[in-house]
Design a protein that fits this description.
single chain, 234 residues, Rossmann fold, ATP binding, 2 domains, alpha/beta, ATP-binding, AAA+_ATPase, six-stranded mixed beta sheet, P-loop_NTPase, binds adenosine-5'-triphosphate
Length: 234
């Protein structure tokens, strides 16, 4: 469970996240939507303790992320898949992450297989495509077998097979009772993947509702999104 309460982050006079409150319960996929600059990444960074809020707080499993001793065993995150040291080999990168969180490296081989990087585990990350880095980022997020996953545009750069694979993976993770918060700009993909949606604009919450309640025959998620955003800007 992720709980966000009155969360606010100002960069100078502008609020990137503005008095935001929502909950992400386990056992379903929650899509996190909003136009460019809506505050999705900033919200995820605040949940992960990478930025300090101006006001409010975010809890994961009832505690602040920063208070977790071995955070990767509770929360798996994929924020910026390109923020990895290009000189490291994929396997080495996961080994380093595992060691820093007291996680056994035993699962690294099978994780690389799972994300489709089984053949390139010994290759340097610098030579990876964006899609391959996303796959590696997903392996890193799953390394600690966490109950909560925060994924910022995980399908960015993935090919159609990779997008479909990600959808199946997220569905199985949610079906196992994990909490899954995933941002995306791909409305048709979100309509297929998410059970529930949180929609933001200008750092404010505009909608927090089930996909089935929003999308109806003849009304696509893209239509709903445009309408919600237009309403929020009036
Ligand atoms: N470190 C920072 N310093 C100043 N402004 C920032 C910083 N980080 C984010 N912002 C601003 O906060 C706002 C929200 O940005 P954020 O990246 O959270 O949006 P987003 O919804 O993730 O956007 P996108 O869909 O484009 O990735 C933007 O106006 C952005 O310019």
């Amino acid at each position: 469970m992720i709980e966000v309460t009155g969360l606010t982050k100002r960069f100078g006079p502008a609020a990137a996240v503005d008095d935001l409150s929502f909950q992400v319960p386990p056992g379903r996929i929650t899509g996190f939507l909003g136009p460019n600059g809506a505050g999705k990444t900033t919200t995820m960074r605040l949940i992960l303790g990478l930025d300090r809020p101006t006001a409010g707080h975010a809890l994961v499993g009832g505690v602040p992320y920063r208070s977790m001793r071995r955070p990767l065993t509770h929360v798996g995150a994929l924020l910026d898949a390109t923020a990895v040291q290009g000189g490291r080999r994929a396997e080495q990168h996961l080994r380093w992450l595992a060691r820093s969180n007291g996680i056994s490296p035993r699962s690294i081989g099978s994780l690389l297989e799972l994300v489709g990087l089984g053949d390139v585990g010994r290759k340097r990350i610098g030579g990876f495509s964006l899609g391959m880095k996303q796959r590696l980022g997903m392996a890193a997020a799953l390394l600690g077998d966490p109950e909560v996953l925060l994924l910022d545009e995980p399908t960015n750069g993935l090919d159609p097979e990779g997008i479909r694979w990600t959808r199946g993976l997220l569905k199985s993770l949610a079906a196992e009772g994990r909490t899954v918060l995933v941002s995306s700009h791909l409305m048709s993909e979100m309509a297929l993947t998410a059970d529930h949606l949180i929609i933001l604009a200008r750092g404010r919450l505009l909608a927090d509702a089930g996909v089935a309640d929003l999308v109806r025959p003849g009304v696509s998620l893209e239509d709903v999104f445009m309408r919600v955003i237009a309403g929020g800007e009036r």
